[in-house]
Amino acid sequence: MTIPADVRTRHASTPVAESITRVASRGDDVEVRFGLPEQHDDWLLCSDALTDPTVFDRWRKALASWLEVEYGESSDRATAGYVMGWYLSVPAQLAGLLFHSARRAPSLKPADLAFRISGDRPQVAGIALLSDEFACLPDDPAGNHPAATVVADESALAALLRAKYVAHAAEFVKSYGPTVRLGRRMLWAAATDALDKGTWLAGRSCGDEATGVSDAAMLLPDKIAPLTSGSTMRFTNGEWTRSRQSCCFTYVLPNATECDTCPRICH
Predict the structure, then answer these.
(1) Distance, CA of 265 to CA of 267 (rounded, Å)
(2) Whole-model pTM?
(3) Whole-angstrom Cα distance, residue 143 to residue 129?
(4) Residues 229 and 192 sit within 8 Å (Cβ to Cβ)
């Protein structure tokens, strides 16, 4: 992939980089970082993934091999569903994490994000932000930084972050949609799920799950097209859960059943 020269030499000293550093070691399975390590051959720019049709094809083939080992066979629907959700988790998780932990909205442009895929189960194992730019609230101590854009209030920040996320998701739908038999609504449902879940899990990883749930409701207050619903978080049997809008198609694999949050199950 093509990595801008300034990204290779950049240090985590800008406000948004410091925000990531503060929350990067919260014990989540996915590494979140600012910039790329010196050895970044296994990292891929989102913009490259969205413009090179072979990227998702190779990713799905790697997943198919893993599913064949785990389940005895693979499924085109399952590989399409898994990769769909995994890719969308890249902008969604970064958006939710910085909104929850710092009330900042980073750039989510495909050229400003990179990701790394695990060598075993080929899921997203690392997410990197490559841009200093961010939006923030009037009381943000870094509001006068050259890379900052100050917005009026939390509602405005949430709306801006949602728009940034939708713009990235639209590029994914345009690129990935023609390669799979999922349908446009399923793709946008997956985008909705990823943002809702990413924000909820940001709260949980930072030790404040209830606030993460509230943040998800702020980012997804209602059905705002092209997203397919507002936040579906709910408190049931003493714990938070949600109703998915999209499907990963795990249930089509041998000896597998629907996920607890599967849209095929009536909640």
Answers:
(1) 6
(2) 0.92
(3) 19
(4) yes
Model pLDDT for residues 89-111, shown as the tens digit of each residue = 999 999 999 999 999 999 999 99
User: CB under 8 Å to 141, separation ≥6 — which residues?
Assistant: none
Q: Which long-range contacts (CB under 8 A, 24 or more apart) does 246-249 make?
A: 246/81, 246/84, 246/85, 246/186, 246/187, 246/189, 246/190, 246/192, 246/193, 247/81, 247/186, 248/78, 248/81, 248/82, 248/85, 249/75, 249/77, 249/78, 249/80, 249/81, 249/82
DSSP strand pairing (233-236 vs 104-106):
unpaired
Would you list the domain boundaries of the chain? 5-184
Q: Provide the 10 A C-beta neighbour count for residue 49.
A: 24
Side chain identity, residue 30: V
Token digits of residue 238: 């003493």
pLDDT digits (tens, 9 = 90+) for 137-178: 999 999 999 999 999 999 999 999 999 999 999 999 999 999
